[in-house]
Amino acid sequence: MTAATIFSPSTRSRFPGFGLSLGFTLFYLTGIVLVPLLALVLRPFSLHLEDFWTTISAPRVLAALRLSFGTALAAAAIDSFFGFIVAWVLVRYRFPGKRLMDALIDLPFALPTAVAGIALSTLYAPTGWVGSLLADYGIKVAYTPWGVLVAMIFIGLPFTVRTLQPVLQDLGRDLEEAAATLGATRPQAIMRVVVPMMMPALLTGAALAFARGVGEYGSIIFIAGNLPMKSEIAPLLIVTKLEQFDYAGAASIGVVMLAASFVLLLALNGLQVWAAKRR
Amino acid sequence: MKKTRSATDDPPLLRYLLCGIAFVFIALFLVLPLMVVFSEALATGLGPVWTAITDTDSLAAIRLSLLAAAIAVPLNTVFGIAASWAIVKFDFPGKAFLVTLIDLPFSVSPVVAGLIYVLVFGRQGWFGSWLTDHDIHILFALPGIVLATIFVTFPFVARELIPLMSDQGREDEEAALSLGASGFATFWRVTLPNIKWGLLYGVLLCNARALGEFGAVSVVSGHIRGQTNTMPLHVELLYNNYDYVGAFSVAALLALLALLTLALKSFLEWRYADELAAVHRH
Questions:
Q1: Neighbours of B110 (CB within 10 A)
Q2: A145 pLDDT higher than 60
Q3: Are the beta carbons of B32 and A107 separated by less than 8 Å?
Q4: What gap in Å lies between CA B146 and CA B125, rounded to an integer?
Q5: Is A2 helix (H, G, I), strand (E, B) or coil?
Q6: I want to staple B239 with a disulfide (CB 3.0 to 4.6 A). Which of A65, B31, B243, B247 is the partner?
Q7: Where does the pLDDT of residue B6 fall: very low under 50, low under 70, confident under 90, or very high at 90 and above?
Q8: Taking CB atoms and an 8 Å limit, are B126 and A39 in contact across chains?
Q9: Which pLDDT value is given to residue A220?
């Protein structure tokens, strides 16, 4: 390991395993993650770049990208709003069944997405428990873009709650007290004092939920109906192109989605730096 | 006995309102979907559930899922330990970047995770023709399923151990080393006992995701019934064949596994809170 040579001999001799642990880490990371990702990134360059643009600017692809990104953004906003309320209830109130509710928040993490998909689809179908109630008012959720939204809300919820919860826990109450002393009503204190202080956590949770929603596949395809131009998400289009052996087309959409992941990851790192500065 | 409300307690009306919103939201999006799984599976009684789960193809799917997890989870565990050891115990340039790269698989779409292996090992992929010439099957076979599973569960253990080991510092290991313990003995006798509950927590989450992964595995599996169908893929196949009882029976099995995971996770958070990374203490 050439990297090891820059350290003072004392650190290295006292503490063992640097070469082995870093060597294995880099080897495994490169083999499993980096080289295959490189295969994706290089793929559009092995063709004519015009083909890449033709694929990406096809109306069906644009519609799918718009649906994935737009709906994920809406789901992240909804998850942030309700996630804040759930986190608030879990941190500030005591009530029976609180531990159960807390454990249940992680269900979307633990439940396989295919199971979530068929369950949500059955529940929100016109014959389902919730879907039949909504059908009375002429609202269709399953097999429409609304179904995509429902699945994305489900899958993103733990990200917002689990990001907000520890921050809310550590939040001192002195500023809220000050606001109350100065005559603010309780809702005013929450909206004007607590929410601004929670902004970094709110944005981080929303970004995580958004990232998950954009890439989500399993829970969505069952409930979406998958109509081209209407309720077809971008990851499904990748799968469709692969099934037609259109590797280049699949890779082109894949590169766009990967680029979005990178941008989000950078934004998240930036958010963390911002949050650390404010603390 | 009347308690006076402090300035930072919410008035009862607000409290009921917020609790009500939270309960309805969680019921609609978490509780009802879970109940649907079991109610649909048991729609015609317990007998058909048993028949669906003990069907040859279902058993093959269960075996394949367990096998893939049994390979992927230990590999990612070893990786997680090695990566957190290197990252926490030493300083080196590019460390923050390395941590970001380890987290990367979390923000990549599962479908993209499957796609990258198709581009490497597929017929038109980098090694496609070489693999065909040598009759080696990676895609549409166990190796591809394992690779996709490893990718999507890549950061779980490392992510759990890095903050935990950072909290613990390196004094314990330094003491053991100064007393003459070998590097391996120090890890085995000092580090491992310190991190065992955090490690178990990471392994638990890694395993749950490994058994449940759908998108990535779906792309590389080829969906050969009884051969390359994992449990989640088998659920899809049964559901698309309108065998709802069968689909929900296998789904119920997966849901039970998920509930077991959540129960164990909550237990660890409650019983061994001090020995987990600080973010899980509540």
A1: 24
A2: yes
A3: no
A4: 18
A5: coil
A6: B247
A7: confident
A8: yes
A9: 97
- Supply the DSSP symbol for B275: G
C-alpha A105, offset from chain centre: 15
Residue A16 Cα, gap to closest chain B Cα (Å): 5
Q: From residue A142, how far is each of A118, A132, A243, B77 by CA, in Å?
A: 11, 11, 25, 39
Mark yes or no for CB contact A128/B98 under 8 Å.
no
pLDDT at B143 over 80: yes
**Which member of A29, A110, A116 has the closest CB to residue B262?**
A110
Distance between CA atoms of B242 and B219, rounded to whole angstroms? 22
Mean pLDDT of A217-236: 94
pLDDT tens-digit readout, A172-188: 788 888 888 898 888 88
Mean pLDDT, to the nearest integer, of A64-75?
A: 96
- The residue that leads in pLDDT, A279 or A50, is A50
Option in B15, B122, B258 nearest A247 (CB): B122
B232/A128 CB distance under 8 A:
no
Provide the percentage of residues in chain A whose pLDDT is more than 70: 94
Give the mean pLDDT of B19-47.
95
Q: Which of B15, B36, B110 lies nearest to residue A122, judging by beta carbons?
A: B36
Chain A's closest residue to B123, CA to CA, is A245
Query: What is the predicted pLDDT for the residue at B280?
Result: 66
Nearest to A93 among B19, B29, B278 (CB): B19
Domain spans of chain A, in order of start: 49-278
d(CA B72, CA B65): 10
Q: Which CATH architecture does the domain made up of A49-278 adopt?
A: Orthogonal Bundle (1.10)
The CA-to-CA distance between both ends of chain B, in Å, stands at: 30
* Cβ atoms of B170 and B253 closer than 8 Å: no
Write the CB contacts of B28 (distance below 8 Å, at least 6 apart in sequence).
A130
CA quadruple B229, B230, B236, B241: dihedral sign: positive
Q: Report the complex ipTM.
A: 0.92
**Inter-chain residue contact A165 with B34, CB threshold 8 Å:** no
pTM, to two decimals: 0.92
Question: What φ, ψ does residue A215 adopt, rounded to 5°?
Answer: -90, -10
- In angstroms, the CA B25 to CA A184 distance is 29
CB atoms within 10 A of CB B282: 14
Closest-approach residue (CA) in chain A for B81: A21
| Cα distance between residue B95 and residue A22, in whole Å | 10
Q: Residue A33 and residue B151: Cβ atoms within 8 Å?
A: yes
Query: For chain B, how many residues are written?
Result: 282
Q: Residue B202: its pLDDT value, please?
A: 95
Chain A CB contacts of B147 under 8 Å are 32
**Rounded CA gap, B201 and B109, in Å?**
24
Residue B59 has phi, psi (to 5 degrees) of -65, -40
Shortest CA distance from A220: residue in chain B: B215
Of A93, A114, A250, Cβ closest to residue B236? A114
Q: Which residues of A touch B261 (CB under 8 A)?
A: 110
- Cα separation, B130 vs B255, whole angstroms: 41
A22 touches chain B (CB under 8 A): yes
